[in-house]
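Supplementary Text 2. Reproducibility record for the structural model of the 356-residue chain.

All settings were left at their defaults, and a single model was retained for analysis rather than an ensemble. We include the record here because the model underlies the residue-level annotations in Supplementary Table 4.
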Amino acid sequence: MPGTTARKQNRSRMVRAVCAVAGASLALAACGSTKDTGAAGAQGGGSGQVGVILPLLTSPFWQSYNDYVPKMADSEGVDTLKTVNSNSDPSQQITDINNQLNQGVKGLVVAPLDSAAIEAGLDQAERKGVPVVAVDVAPDKGKVAMVVRANNVAYGEKACDYLGENVSSGKVVQIMGDLASVNGRDRSEAFRACVKKKYPKLKVLEIPAKWESDTAASKLDTLLNANPDIKGIYMQAGGVYLAPTLQTLKSKGMLKTAGESGHIAIVSNDGIPQEYDAIRKGEIDATVSQPADLYAKYGMYYIKAAMEGKKFEPGPTDHDSTIVKLPSGILEDQLPAPLVTKENVDDPKLWGNTVK
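Retained model, structure tokens:
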């Protein structure tokens, strides 16, 4: 997700400082899996409005998630306010949380921009006894009822294996996300470690792009000038990196379709329709489908459960996922995220094939 790292760090310090001098925290009764261990009578008793806070709306992925929210809220029986867009600004996201709390929401579904900075907003919610479900990004600290997220380590490993099996040797690039986000860290570290362990003939070059399309384009252009012999690219977010990557390759005469001499193998993350079209055209080879539909569905499911005081435990769920306990003690429902290639790109069950 976009944002300048230095600015984020300063904002993270500010919001944590504000939080540190605030009043004492109240315990939150609810936490969330589909292995329900009973109700504890959370504040609000399961009723009341829910605030939904988005990280940004410049990515097709988050645009799709935003479209799914009201549909899934209706199907899960959750009354949501109009979604709020924090516009890639971590400090604005804390303000957005505070504004929603001041409107009297009884639950919050938040997609954190910064894994550390979000703690201040989570503490505000805890002090008011309002449960929070985090979507896509796990906080480093703070209390949430559940994190609804896919296994981002698996994202990096799947990308590594795909490139490793299709590029025998040479240089590969990973265009990384923001390392202030656990998603960026998980994907980057997993890809790097997998290549080192399993595909030692590959040399990894890295572009820290902070979920910013302009940064990805300019740094990729510079890297290709110095390394015109690139054999593969891993894009950690197709929603923001797909267009600039393809345009940069095209401008240099390096965009060759699959099967054509000089083709650069490209694997992505997100599962948006634009990636599927690029796979069909042979411009890229694969992507990992990040489940925008399930993020919305289970974000609504878990916030309703949390407001009702339900608790859950680690283990398999009834929707083909597994709830794990993170080192922080937070529970995370790790939703399935399949690899999509030319062999299965037309599968009607993929959410990217259901949106227009």
